[in-house]
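Long-time lurker. I teach an intro course on protein structure, and each term I like to show students one example going from raw sequence to a predicted 3D structure in token notation. This year I'd like something fresh instead of my usual example. Would anyone be willing to generate the tokens for the chain below so I can use it in lecture? Attribution to the forum is fine with me.
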Amino acid sequence: MSAKCGAGKMVMVLPTQPDEWVQSAARVARTHPVNLIAGYIQRKRRDRFIRVGLIAAGWLALAALGANLWDANRRWQEERQRLEALQVRAPDLEATRDRLATRNQSVAAEAALRQRLATAVLPPVPARLLAHLAGVLPADAHLTSFTAKWSEENSSWSFLCEGQISGDDESAREAVGALQRHLAKGPLRIRFLENQGGAGRASFGGGSAATSLQRFTLEGLLFEN
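-- Reply from a regular --
Happy to contribute to a lecture. Here you go:
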């Protein structure tokens, strides 16, 4: 078969055998556009690679899904077993809760009682004042009565003590005044009342060797708690 082509060229196709055609096609470069066999083989290889990749990704996704389902089922079984164990121990746990609640109430009541007692009980100020007086009282004087009361309005102690001291009226007044000044400067923060009695009247003991005794009164406020 022959045919004319452009520019006066003649193209002739001679009869060939199939094996000659295959050999001629094999000699065509793979990158040549007319090499249809090479393009077909490349597309087939690419399609097979994509298909294998998709299959592998699908299997991996199925494996991940199966592992996730297995882990979720395992955790659900563990939670179910824990719930069953708690249900079995529920009576003991409720009894423990009630016992702890009762104990907490008792502890709270005891703490409130201790707080009330701590705020309600007054400190032993009268005993401290009496001990202080006994330490600073002159040797020739002694107390005959002592009282102390707490005042909520003034937040202070009021005290009244009476006693006797040996000597005449003048020496007794000096001794009682010195005692007052010493107590006012002491650690108990004592404030004496302005109208307080001081040295009182003289009393005398019986017998041939009678001794003069002067009565005195000390009254004031104590601000030390």
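Some talking points for your students: The chain has four helices and seven strands. The helical segments are 18-26, 36-120, 125-136, 169-184.
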